[in-house]
Amino acid sequence: MSDSDLIGDAWRVAPATYAAAREVPFALPELPRSQYVTMRDGCRIALDAWVPEGATGPVPTILIHTPYYRRFKLKEGGQGDAIPNAGKFVRYFVPRGYAVVVVDVRGTGASFGTRDAFRSPKEREDAREITDWIIAQPWSDQQVGATGISYPGAASDFLASTGHPAVKAIAPLFAVWDTYTDNYYPGGILLKQLAKSYDDLMVAMDHDNRELLRNYVYYQNPDLAGPHPVDEDADGALLAQALHEHKGNFRQPDFMGEFRFREEPLPYDASFSSASFSPYSVSPGIRPDVAVFACSGWMDGAGYANGAISRYLTLKNNKVHLLLGPWDHGARCNVSPWRRDQTPDFDLLGEMLRFFDHYMLGRATGLDAEAPIHFFSLHAERWKSATQWPPVETTTRLLPGADGALAATAAPARAETRADFTWGPGNGTRYERIAGINATTYYADWQEREAKLLGWSGAPLDQAMELSGHAIADLWLESSEPDAALFVYLSEVEADGTVRYVTEGLLRALHRKESPAPATYRTTWPFRSFRREDAAPLAVNEPTHIRIPLLPISWTFAKGSRIRVSIAGADADHCVQVPHGRPPKLTLLLGGEKATAIHLPLRPVE
Asked: Which of 65, 228, 321, 329 is catalytic?
């Protein structure tokens, strides 16, 4: 099946329909205007300005702030895409009347400086100054938007948070709201390989190590010859100086290891914590007149969809449009097991064009007549619209039983499992793409892997049921150790016995305490601070109540299918052991007053 926006009636005007009718009056110049802009501290930042060829008046600008090279240099006579990251935005928006400015963040590409942090606050101030530079150019109409996938997406949040009056609209795509739980420490559990894989990528880029860089599928073209010098640097001498400064950049595994607790300051800088590189912390600076297009996918890493949803819920005074598709990180793949092709058919660029046209060009796009939320329901293979999150307000409570059943009632019993520190879901999961690994098929062997877990299955459904939102695992358990990593999986068991991965939730028991969600970080699922003062060991072998939100999903369970819930104490393929070398025995309390349950946002399919 296809994820095309032309299928169904979720939109009054489908993005592809809007894009097809939109004129393309200008041309893309052969080369950008490339130069250094000097920041407040003397650091020289490299940028490329792509200005529509044929435009006779000023135009709005879309800013992309990236650590992944604004542009590559190609070998003499070389072939290929010199802008593999920002290129699709440049090639699409410039002919349609937008200037696109692509910036190497300080300490990367051809820019000078040293990176002192992941999404350093210095970059936020750089973005403000780059915006000042943009609106001073003769081709600028004084309006600036921003976008990008992942890191550049979050950079658009940071730009808007400066309150710069020229910023009118941002489109953070597949971008975190909280780097701690959305990315590196989901559920308070460290993703052990992510920092190392990402560090290898950044060392390859920042140090211009081309052999190392070719380990990443995005950069395997042998004609890519490092960052492109700016126009004034004809002999590459300035680029060489910049690359030398990059040798002092922070190292991601060492850096991320400093943030075991959310918002705990660095030992050498009381002003810097995980909040410093998370958009939620500066969100009060986003003016209410800035429009926001928040986009993610159901298989977008460890929590990027949560980030998009929190962005939507938090910025309630802004015009926010939320899009959640059947995609992995960056929408490189349609992840549906029922997909026609792995390449998405959805016109994401067309939807972005409509958004920027509406809020920056003031065109009559009809966007204000559309629902604010659009999401794709897997297995139903169709787009849906909603006016609120969650889209399904009613919940169904099901209880695991001693007989392996999942039903409305259960007799008092106990179920035991010991954490298997060798078990994992494999390497074709939601976690690979965020580490730069080219996963294209998702959970293909889930049936075999899930069979090794303690689990419960419901009765065959007498009608198709749509689950849209966050399922909540409501656990009563005892642990033989004072800490544990808890993983709860939701699956569909089809009538022929095929088991499909649906979603999962994970939590380190140390962080089980819930607290109200702050105004800068709104959720509709249980919120936790993950702060040191709220962390507490478990009382060994004592019943403990823990609620675990599963990652959001829209999934339609077919008539005749069964809903299955499974639990594990480890994910050896992605997460650290908890506790190290001491696999806990986990005892689930079933039925009775302290009954383990799963709460599912279900509704019958019309």
From this structure: 329
Q: How many CA atoms lie within 13 A of 543 on its CB side?
A: 13
Q: Which of 336, 330, 325 is nearest to 1 (CA)?
A: 336
CA distance 604 to 23: 42
Tokens of 402: 């001693």
What average pLDDT does the segment 428-451 reach?
94
- Reported as a pLDDT band with limits 50, 70 and 90, residue 606 is confident
CATH architecture observed for domain 15-386: 3-Layer(aba) Sandwich (3.40)
CB 89 within 8 A of CB 100: yes
In angstroms, the first-to-last Cα distance of the chain is 20
**Quick check: is 150 catalytic?**
yes
pLDDT at 45 over 90: yes
| CA dihedral angle for residue 304, residue 306, residue 310, residue 311, rounded to 10 degrees | 20
**pLDDT of res. 43:** 98
Domain 396-604: which CATH number of 1.20.120.1630, 2.60.120.260, 3.40.50.11810, 1.10.8.60: 2.60.120.260
pLDDT digits (tens, 9 = 90+) for 339-363: 999 999 999 999 999 999 999 999 9
- Catalytic position from the list 3, 157, 206, 300: 300
What's the full length of the chain, in residues?
606
pTM (predicted TM-score): 0.97
- Indicate whether 412 pLDDT > 90: yes
